[in-house]
């Protein structure tokens, strides 16, 4: 693919105080690709995403289209095009669906601009997001707190898309969702990737699901990558399925 090192992670170390979680990660994500990060509980998947979006401090190098991301605040990372959808979603439950989406747009511009061109841009982005998530359009005036779990996850992803991200980071989007809703959600992520060419890094416990939409995958164990390859190859590796993906 063109631009194979769009996201380049080199010798990434990160942790919390004394706890050293990531012990030197090296991987690249090509522009426009979906990359899955798999692995058992506590392997460091969430920490990896946090290091990419400025939520934990890292050592080494993480570049996006050549720009260094390490050492940036989450706000700076967002302005550089990194949108993070954390586990547990983090939408504002008392705000309506549309208000939540508008918050996403303000994160992009950094200020509450009220000019005509900004209003038009936000309206276009809302249309884009509603196009991907028809359910959110139906519920635009409902509070986020009144949505189902699946719809809240859609809202969290929709809000991230309001940033027009260059890089979308998804942490366990399937968590707590029924299989049918999860499938719908993943199909939407696939469509966003295909239609907008958004580069995606998705962390998932449900490896089968993630491998269905990913182009490449990395298996993380105890803070180190133990396996990397095309998603199809990882899916077909019987030993991998048994040992790392919890499938027998
Ligand atoms: P899970 O699927 O369980 O979330 P994970 O692969 O995402 O697993 P991380 O959440 O990155 O793993 O956690 C890696 C290690 O870091 C774990 O041992 C965890 O206990 C520890 N850890 C995570 N967050 C913190 C924190 N805020 N402070 C201290 N230690 C943490």
From TrEMBL:
Residues in ABC transporter domain copies: 7-247
Presence of the UniProt keyword Amino-acid biosynthesis in the record: no
GO molecular function, one term: ATP binding
An individual GO BP term: L-amino acid transport
Keyword Nucleotide-binding tagged: yes
Alphabetical list of PROSITE patterns matching this protein: ABC_TRANSPORTER_1, ABC_TRANSPORTER_2
UniProt xrefs under InterPro entries: AAA+_ATPase (IPR003593), ABC_transporter-like_ATP-bd (IPR003439), ABC_transporter-like_CS (IPR017871), BCAA_Transport_ATP-bd_LivF (IPR052156), P-loop_NTPase (IPR027417)
Family to which this protein belongs: Belongs to the ABC transporter superfamily.
Protein name (Swiss-Prot/TrEMBL): ABC transporter ATP-binding protein
